[in-house]
Amino acid sequence: MRNLLLILLFLGTINCSNKQESINENKIKIALIYGINTTFIETLINDINDYKESNYPNITFIELNASEDTVKQQSQIETLITQGIDGIMLQIANTGIASSIDAYVKANNIPTLYYNIRPTTLQEGTYSYVGMNEKSVGYIQAQEVLKVRSNGNAVILLGDQNNESTLLRTSSVMQSLSNTQIKILATAYGNWYDNIAESIMEKWINLNNNIDIVFSNNDDMAVGSIRAIERAGKKLGTNNGEIMVLGVDATPNGIQSIKDGKMYATVKQDGKLEAKIIVDSIVDMINNNKNRTVLIEPEVITIENINEIEK
């Protein structure tokens, strides 16, 4: 946490020293591109735009949604560079295309900041990235369960297959439970969507009546699973015979589910802080052309601290 605070102070210092010169004297155009349109990403994009309007009103954002289409995303970037762009904030649609995109933007000297989804096929230190410390997420979920349960059967709803967040959120849950009496019965890819997760959960319940815990890689899938659990007449909770559901992102739907006594916990990905760091970082990259990686530490939200977190 101390290292994170030092990084934030460092970014703030650089931003303050360069902001007046770069923003007042130049009409900067920056692309804001996203590839996966989840509830959290919708909120994050809004936070990025809000922060820009409040702090960098002279910057022009060009917002593009690739809708999980890698060919479309590559075409968007090529068109932007041809038309003229000063920098790119990029949530990559699929890490498999990271190498080709990265080579293209570097060949054209366009500062590019990856956010939310790390381009894992690229060599560490050769790119800039802002996102959550994904390794902490599954650990936090597992610890919340272990506070109230010493045994039980669990399932895990995964994001998409080609995503580091999916891998790290899932593996850290499994590692944290490896020496406990909690058994992982099944995993399945819900691709971040509530309707897919709802269908998966319905099938799991029909196959096995002894599910005690649902670990979900995000809130949307957790909410979808809750619908299936309730439709099957199952109770949500921590007691024997009840099902605990844990999500990630602290989306409005996730927070409301906790307030309603349905979702047990979510792991907060601080979108407003992430938005600030993303925008400040890309502006500084345009001015100074330096790579940086910032990992934001998540925190757990339960009914016990939800009012404090929302302040």
From TrEMBL:
InterPro entries: Peripla_BP_I (IPR028082), SBP_2_dom (IPR025997). CDD domains: PBP1_ABC_sugar_binding-like. It is found in: Cell envelope. Pfam families: Peripla_BP_4. GO terms for molecular function: carbohydrate binding. Residues 34-289 form the Periplasmic binding protein domain. One of its GO terms (cellular component) is cell envelope. Keywords: Signal. It comes from the Bacteria. Its main location: other. The keyword GTP-binding does not apply. PANTHER family: D-ALLOSE-BINDING PERIPLASMIC PROTEIN-RELATED. Belongs to the bacterial solute-binding protein 2 family. This is Periplasmic binding protein domain-containing protein.
